[in-house]
Design a protein that fits this description.
The protein is built from 2 helices and no strands. With about 130 residues, it is mainly α. The N and C termini lie far apart (about 105 Å). About 0% of the residues are buried.
Length: about 130
């Protein structure tokens, strides 16, 4: 047996205010979804930057350890003292790391809000002791 078919209810035509409200909600939802996507993208970029930075730092640390071990082995073989060039190169690498850390961050656009405090002082022209009252 088939169930009796029920004709679909005829919806009332939307009023003008309902149409306007639906339009406003649609644009609001689109805007807030964009904000959420932008926030997620920013967090993802920040996490990726931190991961790149940590990876680079680990690689530099491994290179330092390998260079230090090689210089110690060379020092033991030659029996002499090492020059100060190793410490100079390490200092240069540290400075490069500090500069690269600043470069990895994502640029953030300026949102346009600003507060300006003005202090206005009226001074007498030179040679006039008190303002004249006219």
């Amino acid at each position: 047996r088939s169930s009796p078919s029920v004709p679909p209810k005829a919806e009332k035509p939307q009023k003008r205010a309902d149409k306007y409200f639906a339009l406003l909600m649609k644009s609001y939802d689109k805007r807030t979804d964009g904000w959420a996507q932008a926030d997620e993208e920013e967090a993802r970029d920040k996490a990726e930057g931190a991961a790149r930075w940590a990876n680079r730092r680990a690689m530099l640390e491994e290179k330092r350890k390998a260079a230090k071990a090689a210089s110690e082995a060379k020092k033991r073989r030659s029996g002499g003292t090492s020059s100060g060039s190793d410490s100079d190169s390490e200092d240069k690498e540290e400075k490069e790391e500090e500069l690269d850390a600043d470069a990895l961050g994502k640029l953030v656009s300026y949102d346009g809000t600003m507060q300006v405090d003005l202090e206005i002082v009226l001074l007498n022209p030179p040679g006039v002791s008190e303002p004249s009252e006219s």
